[in-house]
């Protein structure tokens, strides 16, 4: 879990550029590497820059003055976000916006690669994820939230090599259970209980907290989409 003790007054005092990429060919985009837990500030890039995640994981978040935190999105390799999204958060007296690397992460500027149409597509994709997250927070049940998150993370952070015989897939979980709670609007205890319920009922498996294997993807999709009543999702072992 990353440090959520930053307040709006002292956040965004400057970039933390832990390591500049040393293998950047002449003329290629500006690229930086951040260690796990490092705050990703827009000051590392040009104002308004579009940034692509080359490797790793980034969480976009907001923090209230009293320390409460909401993770707004979790982004993996290939995802693009704007430095302007996390610029100027100190102008707000009540909310601090930011981004943090949840694993060793390489980011690069891509301004020269994207035209106006491409920027519009990126914005539309980000807005789509924002709408989906708002729906998740406002309407979905605990099992629906958890299933939605697992499927999203499995798509973004797959571990190569699927067991075709079992038709399973595994992914790297860069978030702690507490991070998942801050993303899904639940308590740590509720997240842990739901993951353990899914595991006990054969939907997922994990021996380590950081690697999760999906055993019944179709069932998770069914739960995530709300095709079952809240009472039915309390007993996922009864679902197909």
Topology:
Layout: E1 19-20, E2 31-34, E3 50-55, E4 58-64, E5 69-75, E6 80-82, E7 95-101, E8 105-109, H1 116-139, H2 142-156, E9 169-172, H3 177-184, H4 188-200, E10 204-208, E11 211-214, H5 217-224, H6 230-233
Antiparallel strand pairs: 1-2, 2-8, 3-6, 3-8, 4-5, 4-7, 9-11, 10-11
Helix pairs in contact: 2-5, 3-4
How would you describe the overall organization of this protein?
By secondary structure, the chain is an alpha+beta fold. The protein has two domains: 19-127, Jelly Rolls; 140-238, Orthogonal Bundle (Arc Repressor Mutant, subunit A), CATH 1.10.10.10. Helix content is 30%, strand content 22%. It contains six helices and eleven strands. It has helices spanning 116-139, 142-156, 177-184, 188-200, 217-224, 230-233; strands at 19-20, 31-34, 50-55, 58-64, 69-75, 80-82, 95-101, 105-109, 169-172, 204-208, 211-214. The strands form three sheets. The chain has a five-stranded antiparallel sheet. The chain has a three-stranded antiparallel sheet with strand order 5-4-7. Strands 9-11-10 form a three-stranded antiparallel sheet. A hairpin with a 4-residue loop joins strand 4 and strand 5 (69-75). The longest helix is centred in the middle third of the chain and has 24 residues, at 116-139. The protein starts with 18 loop residues before the first strand and ends in a 7-residue tail after the last helix. InterPro entries: cNMP-bd_dom, cNMP-bd_dom_sf, Env_Response_Regulators, HTH_CRP, RmlC-like_jellyroll, WH-like_DNA-bd_sf, WH_DNA-bd_sf. Residues 140-218 form the HTH crp-type domain.
């Amino acid at each position: 879990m990353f440090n959520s003790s930053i307040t709006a007054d002292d956040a965004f005092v400057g970039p933390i550029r832990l390591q500049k990429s040393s293998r950047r060919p002449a003329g290629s985009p500006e690229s930086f590497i951040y260690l796990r837990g490092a705050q990703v500030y827009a000051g590392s890039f040009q104002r308004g820059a579009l940034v692509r995640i080359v490797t790793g994981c980034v969480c976009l978040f907001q923090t209230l003055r009293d320390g409460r935190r909401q993770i707004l999105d979790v982004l993996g390799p290939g995802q693009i976000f704007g430095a302007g999204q996390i610029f100027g958060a100190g102008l707000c007296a009540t909310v601090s916006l930011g981004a943090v690397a949840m694993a060793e992460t390489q980011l690069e500027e891509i301004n020269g690669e994207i035209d106006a149409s491409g920027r519009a597509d990126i914005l539309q994709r980000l807005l789509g994820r924002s709408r989906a997250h708002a729906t998740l927070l406002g309407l979905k049940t605990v099992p629906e939230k958890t299933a939605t998150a697992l499927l999203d993370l499995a798509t973004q952070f797959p571990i190569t090599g699927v067991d075709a015989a079992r038709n399973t897939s595994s992914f790297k979980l860069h978030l702690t259970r507490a991070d998942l709670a801050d993303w899904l609007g639940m308590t740590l205890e509720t997240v842990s209980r739901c993951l353990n319920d899914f595991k006990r009922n054969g939907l997922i498996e994990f021996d380590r907290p950081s690697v999760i294997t999906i055993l019944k993807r179709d069932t998770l999709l069914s739960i995530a989409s709300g095709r079952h009543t809240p009472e039915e999702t309390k007993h996922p072992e009864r679902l197909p």
